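This section describes the prediction task in plain terms. A model, or a person checking by hand, is given the sequence of a single protein chain and must write out its three-dimensional structure as a string of tokens. No templates, partner chains or ligands are provided. The sample shown here is typical of the held-out split.
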Amino acid sequence: MQLETERLILRPWTEADAESLYEYAKDPAVGSVAGWPPHRCVDESLNVIRNVLNGPQCYAICEKADNKAIGAVELKLKGHTDMTQREDECELGYWLGKPFWGRGYTPEAAKALLRYGFETLGMTTVWCGYYDGNEKSKRVQEKLGFTYHHTCEQVEVPLLNEIRGGHTSFLTKQNWEKLNNKDS
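The expected answer:
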């Protein structure tokens, strides 16, 4: 499946995206704030495509001009998230290559996927989190209408072997509908 926005294509990751993924995921500024280490080689990025970016609702964020993967957006469904065990709830995750920061691409991509999650997948609540210091992710959640829920001071970040503060927010279908109608 593929989703489109005004400027973006959201499509499944393919093995052909490994070089593009490596190009952006090797930057320490991209993954470290999200809890994963910089990629060390194209083969590592290929492995991530095969084993991490392979969820049923995980999409490469691509500019329409060239369809090149520049980031990811995902609705992590039951069994792929520790934020909920419900079938009608999921977790939103995202990241974007640094050269594309500040263009509004992440909120644009996430809005399209949230619409799909609420209208097509039947989600009632979408959860989202960020670690201390990831102000860009916090801002994306605010732009999308997420509401702060709680903070955990001692969250394990296993891929970096660290403990961080983690903040969790949520967006209900009811609140999403109110926001959506306000924009109409």
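For orientation: Strands lie at 3-4, 8-11, 58-63, 69-76, 89-96, 125-131, 147-157, 162-172.
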